[in-house]
Amino acid sequence: QVQLVESGGGLVQAGGSLRLSCAASGRTFSNYAMGWFRQAPGKEREFVATINWSGTNTHYDDSVKGRFTISRDNAKKTVYLQMNNLKPEDTAVYYCAVRLLGGIATIDANEYDYWGQGTQVTVSS
Q1: Residue 18: its pLDDT value, please?
Q2: By C-alpha distance, which of 92, 97, 86, 78 is closest to 18?
């Protein structure tokens, strides 16, 4: 079993920045692919970013490409999401997730095995 705890969310003005963190425990972190997803009120969960086990491959949704950066520190068992130039449409609960099989990055939420509790990001207009 894997436990994930997100932190770093908050209220910011449009154009501001936040860095989200997700700390993992329970299994060897370096063998997993990791992803960030978000869910706004009344909407389905959507893909944000993903990173493979070694950190050599990343993928981003077009809506955040060029503004968000996903990274990981396997020694600290932590994945990060640096969010710059935030927009009101980025407002959502952000979740990190772990994919166990092969450590390959994927944008499909159904391929992830464990999820954190989420952290709220609110961007004022």
Answers
A1: 98
A2: 86
